[in-house]
Amino acid sequence: MKLENFPDEIRPFIIPNHQGNLVYRCLGCGTEHSIDNLLYTCPDCGKVLLIHDLNFDLLKNIPGNKWRSIFDYRKMLKTPALKGIYLYHEFIGPIIPLSSIIYLGEGHTPVIEANSILQEKVGMKFFFKNDGQNPSASFKDRGMASALSYINFLVKDNRLSDILAICASTGDTSASAALYAAYLQPHIKSAVLLPHKKVTPQQLSQPLGSGASVFEIPGVFDDCMKIVESLSEKYNVALLNSKNAWRILGQESYSYEIAQNFEYDMRNKIIVIPIGNAGNITAVLNGFIKFYETGIIDVLPKIIGVQSKHANPVYNYYSEPDDQKRRFIPVNVKPSVAQAAMIGDPVSMPRVIHLVKTYNRLAGKESTSFIEVTEQEIMDWQIIANRNGHIACTHGGECLAGLFVAIKNNIVSKTDTAILDSTAHALKFSGFQDMYFDNKFPSEYDILPDKTLVNFPVLIHPDDLDKVPTHGKPLDKIDFEIFIKRISDEIADILDLKER
After folding, report:
1. Contact 212/190 with Cβ under 8 angstroms?
2. Are strands 49-53 and 302-308 parallel, antiparallel or unpaired?
3. N or C: at which end does the chain have fewer Cβ atoms within 10 angstroms?
4. Residues 451-478 pLDDT 10s
5. Final residue belonging to a domain, choices 195, 216, 246
């Protein structure tokens, strides 16, 4: 839709013109720092940062109903820079010119309602938001589009050059970082650190295919993260993990899209999110807070964070009901099928603590909960979801398992509507499905297959069928007709098909 065709009252707002004034704000000492330099922790106290717009209150001058119209009409634009997460430019990166924004097709992933069979089995109405349908097949592209757009802006403004972008990863971050860095070469190169043999082959192939320098490190993700932090402190590299506050900004788009998808009505809505490095739940909390403070939504939805028993530091923290007695203690993780969540010391934990308090205060009640599930529950529910028409990854299975536990524990009402985050594409974790079907999970996973969920291919080759087609050796007409009839009859018998 062309600009001149928009309604007169909306036209001045369709192309973003908010003059943002962004700063890094420390969650430890409260000090604000300029965004002219790439910072990941506070130079004064070493704590993590969030990006704050000092001009944010100016956004409140536009009524919430007008913001809703702006975003809805803006979706009709064909401008690439505004087709992805920067549809919400004023709330994500208002200092970044549209000419510096990187758009590779990220954002606006589909929200798919579960079929009636699955909803009845779970016990309430719910949807999956399929973030595996982002360009690199995971939600990480939201944050990477933000972080790399900002770096691209600094490069174009001659404030940075010859950047090496680096990250630690359990798979998805590395795939996303390598993809976006490859798009911006030769100005930006990428290197990724992965825990050796703890990333699926599909995920490993992605940064290799994008040309990144890939290093496998002994240990787990937390060990890789410490090395990346050390490199970012000593050398001129751009850290692309969720410690990077620009990543959080981009991932806030997940909240905005859910609000828009449900006509900005967040009453009786439940958002279920897996917790890994805690960047995603941080972004979702902050995104809904921003929309609430500007009147775009008038109710804050309930947020449920889910963790596996094999990596549960956030759950453990909130298991203590007395806020004054809570102490965060990192855990030693065990192997988990939810690999991106296999993190024992999430770097965004201070953000979670800060934003949960703010969120509950604004909501006027406890609107956040944290749930623990087993590895068995994760795999069972992932397969059940996909048997009912979804493409849920193991983290989507983790969310569905968490929702089921929340219903059993009366944390949510059966009259609510839940939106579950399936963070990546199921194909990235197909190896775990194979292990489930073959009953080959190592004992430390604590997973045994439910035989009713196991599925195998069936070879159809009747013993009395001597002649079958092979590559380069087709059958003659008579033998081929015999082949077709015998195979068809065998399949029909197995499936108990009735003749017309």
Report:
1. yes
2. unpaired
3. C
4. 999 999 999 998 888 899 988 899 999 9
5. 246
